[in-house]
Amino acid sequence: MNKILIVDDEPHIIKFVSISLRSQGYEVLTAKTGKEAIAQVALAGPDLVILDLGLPDLDGQHVLLSIRELSQVPVIILSIRDTESDKVKALDNGANDYVVKPFSVQEFLARIRTQLRKAPKTSTNFEEKGLKIDYSTRKVTFQDIEIHLSKKEYALLSYLTEHSGKVVTQTQLIERIWGVNHLDDTHYLRILVARLRSRLGDDGHQPSIIETLPGIGYRFITD
């Protein structure tokens, strides 16, 4: 059963969308604030997020960026804002789709099904080279010692391990961590990789965990 998080501060919208989703067999989670939404993504691991932009505590665009630091879960914006600039900004910030209120329920459900079909199916855990990651709780241990990573360090490590053994380009990593407006900021990525290597005790000159492919990207080295 797919788990869908509805982020909206309007009770009638939450009720209406929840009924529609449950009628299709989805499990429903709800959040009325941006901070609650970010926590739910980190802890509950929803399969899709429906996000309103007008929240009482945080702007929805900020919430979207915070979600993207944690996860690549599909995000559908459901908002009364219908300007082209709002739509473009949301898509640039990592939204997968944008639906304007009021909306057609059947079309909205079809958009949800489309995003769930596209979503990659990944394991909730990773274990290799003494590194253990629980993606659902974001807990990371190395050599049986828990290490506490920043949001960006975790985003980098999770993306590399999700593609373990494969080359991940600089562009892919920068877009995942900072967004499409920072694609030229490769120096930020180099600094972040160096910090993560330091956390894992990995030598950049003779790496055993994260390999650099100059000018191309990085690879998590498999056993």
What does this structure look like?
- The protein has helices spanning 11-22, 34-44, 60-70, 84-92, 105-118, 151-162, 170-177, 186-200; strands spanning 3-7, 27-31, 48-51, 75-79, 97-100, 125-128, 131-134, 139-142, 145-147, 167-169, 210-213, 217-220.
- With 223 residues, the chain is an alpha/beta fold.
- The chain has a five-stranded parallel beta sheet, sandwiched between helices. The chain has a four-stranded antiparallel beta sheet with strand order 6-7-8-9, covered by helices on one side. A three-stranded antiparallel beta sheet has the order 10-12-11.
- Strand 3 (48-51), helix 3 and strand 4 form a beta-alpha-beta unit.
- Helix 6 (151-162) crosses helix 8.
- The longest helix is centred in the last third of the chain and has 15 residues, at 186-200.
- The radius of gyration is 18 Å and the shape is elongated.
- The model has no long low-confidence stretch (mean pLDDT 90).
By secondary-structure content and strand pairing, the structural class works out as alpha/beta
Return the CATH topology of the largest domain.
Answer: Rossmann fold
Proportion of strand residues: 15-25%
Describe the main β-sheet briefly: 5 strands, parallel
What is the CATH first-level class name of the largest domain? Alpha Beta
Shape: elongated
Give me the CATH superfamily of the largest domain: Response regulator
Q: Identify low-pLDDT runs.
A: none
What is the number of helices?
8
Helix content: 40-55%
Number of strands: 12
Query: What is the mean pLDDT?
Result: 90
Q: Strand-and-helix sequence, N→C?
A: EHEHEHEHEHEEEEHEHHEE
CATH architecture of the largest domain: 3-Layer(aba) Sandwich
User: How many structural domains can be distinguished in the coordinates?
Assistant: 2
Major sheet: arrangement of strands:
2-1-3-4-5
Amino-to-carboxy terminus distance: 34 Å
The radius of gyration is: 18 Å
